[in-house]
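Quick one:
INPUT:
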């Protein structure tokens, strides 16, 4: 039996995720509940890559090369590609008292995070620390003379957040924690065989995929 490959020259930019089964005539997808790969194709042949299962979360950035029957992903330096600081500033104002007021909420986009470690530091290396309450909140006042310049938020299993502060500014902010992940090192490569590229997606085999797996383009 001869496998038919498409000879498409380009994958349309967008976000593609691996699915357990795809039924094109019904536009039906069945996701794999055990693990998944998401690849975001950018302009100029760059990409973001994410693999996740119950234990592992791997992410990488790099440049891909598409040939007639295979695609090669080469990972590059990712030190400045993943911004894990997600926040919403809800209010900010200059303080006219001898202290600075902070209202901080810590969540993970799904639920509040109780007992998050929240540390204020200044340029002298001194620090004051608190914990979030059962609502994921912290309400506190820091003496203006302490002059805090940075907030550090730590919660087990999540990426550490470091957030720079403006001088003498009362602040109300929500921090959204991201799951801790491992970066794929520069120089690593992954090569897949690829076929049937179209606007809906494409099929790949190789790496962790022992069978042809459809990568569906996100609508």
């Amino acid at each position: 039996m001869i496998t038919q490959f498409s000879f498409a020259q380009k994958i349309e930019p967008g976000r593609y995720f691996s699915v357990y089964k795809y039924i094109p005539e019904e536009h039906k997808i069945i996701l794999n509940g055990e693990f998944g790969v998401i690849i975001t194709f950018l302009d100029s042949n760059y990409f973001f890559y994410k693999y996740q299962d119950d234990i592992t979360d791997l992410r990488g950035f790099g440049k891909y090369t598409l040939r007639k029957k295979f695609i090669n992903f080469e990972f590059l330096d990712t030190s400045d590609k993943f911004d894990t600081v997600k926040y919403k500033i809800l209010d900010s104002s200059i303080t006219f008292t001898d202290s600075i007021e902070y209202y901080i909420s810590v969540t993970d986009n799904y639920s509040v995070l109780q007992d998050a470690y929240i540390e204020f530091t200044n340029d002298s290396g001194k620090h004051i620390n608190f914990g979030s309450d059962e609502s994921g909140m912290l309400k506190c006042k820091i003496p203006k003379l302490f002059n805090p310049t940075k907030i550090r938020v730590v919660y087990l299993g999540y990426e550490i957040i470091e957030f720079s502060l403006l001088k003498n500014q009362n602040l109300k902010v929500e921090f959204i924690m991201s799951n801790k992940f491992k970066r794929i090192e520069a120089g690593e490569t992954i090569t897949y065989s690829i076929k049937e590229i179209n606007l809906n997606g494409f099929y790949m085999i190789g790496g962790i995929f022992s069978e042809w797996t459809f990568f569906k383009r996100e609508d």
